[in-house]
Design goal:
By secondary structure, this protein is an alpha/beta fold. Helices cover 37% and strands 22% of the residues. The protein has helices spanning 2-31, 46-53, 79-90, 108-113, 174-182, 196-201, 211-220, 246-262, 264-271, and strands at residues 56-60, 63-64, 68-70, 76-77, 98-102, 119-120, 134-143, 145-150, 166-170, 185-189, 206-210, 225-228, 235-242. The longest helix has 30 residues, at 2-31. The N and C termini lie far apart (86 Å).
Amino acid sequence: MKHTKLSFFALAAATALVLTGCAGSDDAADSEETPEAAPTFAAGSTMERLSSAGEITIGTKFDQPLFGLVGPDGTPEGFDVEIGKIIADKLGIDDDKIKWVETVSANREPFIQNGEVDIVVATYTINDKRKEVISFAGPYYTAGQSILTLSDNDDITTEDDLVGQKVCSVTGSTPAANLEALGADVVLTDTYTNCLEPLRTGQVVAVSTDNVILAGLAAQNEGEFQVVGKPFTEEPYGIGLAKDDTDFRTFINDTLEESYEDGSYEEAWNETAGAVLPFVEPPAVDRY
């Protein structure tokens, strides 16, 4: 009997040890991170095509500090770039699988229409004329047109002071059209950085575009320039995409709203444009 009892207790102890070991294995398995499932999308949708390919082509500006500026390593950086990354991430596309293409104001619509880019995130004002040929998601930010002058210029304080004066802006941009309507003598170039030398040399008295772009230029050239006056327009920035791709537009709008809620939008702002400009709550997306 004694031998039988000892065998019973030995068996019980061994069983407990095995069970403890199994429990430990389960705990270890539970402690490991479960790989995030790849997103799935409707067959034939733009989202499915891009996600399956694992890459996306995004048009942005290469010359605008704070929003889209090519860094020392040749990669663009700024708030628009971060918005593009948020959209790519939602498609399951890594940052290093994004192809960045420079889109200046004059070629944004053609690049979308020709399929050279999948989306454009490039301080891109939503307006009715552009919506005739492309679609917009957003807006995700509202800027306003303002004025950049030499830091010692006290003669120009509002847009009224630009009437009849030579003012530099960019071909194909909303600000250039606004200046023409205002009565300024508009000097056009392809990028806003190309406006700075004419301003330095007195060929123009001011540069005029969205306040966020001008703030970036002033910050990049500290002491040379100043942003004057209050914004005299409202410029809602949107994300350009192919005309009538409603499902893709809805997906981008959903992604923007999620970024507002989870804090990734504000984080993107603080890491880029927030170095110079205060954070403001994003506008409601347009569900037209």
